[in-house]
Amino acid sequence: MHNHARGARTGVARSVRGTQVTIMTSLSPPSALPLPGDRRALYWLVASNAVVVVIALWQRWPIGLLLWPYWLQSVIIGVFSYRRMMGLTRFSTDRFRVNGRQSEPTEETKRSTANFFAVHYGFFHLGYGVFLLKNPLPPQEWLWVGIAAVTFAVNHWQSFARFREADRQGSPNIGTLMFLPYLRVVPMHLMIIIGVGFLGGGGLSVLFFGVLKTVADCAMHVAEHRMLARSPAA
C-alpha cells in the first residue's frame, strides 16, 4: 500500500542512449524541522562546509578553487546514491516508467536503474571535471582539498548509513532515489557557477560565497530527507 503526500506532482524525464526514463513524484515543502537524526547530519553538513571555507580563507584560495571540493562532494553524493539503490531489498516503482512502460519492482529493474543513474550522473560529472581541468588544481593544494573531501564523505556516509537502515524497514521509491541526487546537486552547482561568474576575488567574496553555498546545500539536504521520509512502510 502506497502513501502519497499532498503537493505538486512533478515529472522528470532523462534519456541515455535511447532509454527514456520518466519519474512522477510529489513534491511538498517541509512542514517541520528535521528529525533528530536529520539534525545531526545537518550539523555535520554545516561543519563540513565551514571547514572548506576556513581552509579557503587560510590558504587564500580564489573562488574558482572552491569548485574542486564541491565537485568532489557532488561525486560523493552520487557514489552513495548508487550504493543505496543497489542495496535495496524492497522498493516501490509507483509512477516510475522506462520507455513509456510502468516498471516492476524486480532485481533487474533495480540494477538497470542504478546503472542508468551511474552512467548519466557519471557523464555529467566527467564533463564538469574536464571543465575544471582548464584550471588545474595546484599540487600544494591537493592535501587541503583532500581534507575537505573527507569531511564531506563522513557527512554523507552518516546519511547513507541512516537511510540504508530505514530502507530495510520500508519500501522507498527507486525512481525518487534516482532523481534526488540531481535535485540535491544542481541548485548547489548553479550557485557555484553564479558565484564564480559575478563575485570578485578576496576573502570577503570567498566567505560570502561559502555562506550562500552552505545555505543552498542545507536547504536541499532538508528537502531530500523530507521527501525520503515519505517512503511507504513495508
Describe the structure.
- By secondary structure, the protein is of the alpha+beta class.
- The protein has 6 helices and 4 strands, in the order E-E-H-H-E-E-H-H-H-H.
- It has a 4-stranded antiparallel β-sheet with strand order 1-2-3-4, covered by helices on one side.
- The longest helix has 28 residues, at 142-169.
- The model is unreliable at 1-10 and 23-36 (pLDDT under 50).
* Distance between the ends: 8 Å
Order of strands in the sheet with most strands: 1-2-3-4
Helix and strand pattern: EEHHEEHHHH
Q: What is the global morphology?
A: elongated
**Structural class by SSE content:** alpha+beta
Percentage of residues in DSSP E strands: 5-15%
* Mean pLDDT score: 76
The biggest beta sheet, please?
4 strands, antiparallel
Tell me the number of helical segments per DSSP (H or I, 4 or more residues long): 6
Rg computed from alpha carbons, rounded to a whole number of angstroms: 18 Å
How helical, in percent, are the residues? 55-70%
Number of strands: 4
**Which runs of at least 5 residues are low in confidence (pLDDT < 50)?**
1-10, 23-36
Q: What would you say about this model in short?
A:
This protein has 6 helices and 4 strands.
Topology summary:
Blueprint: E1 8-16, E2 19-27, H1 36-58, H2 67-86, E3 96-98, E4 101-102, H3 107-132, H4 142-169, H5 174-198, H6 203-228
Antiparallel strand pairs: 1-2, 2-3, 3-4
Write out key terms for the chains shown:
63% helix; 6 helices; alpha+beta; 10% strand; elongated
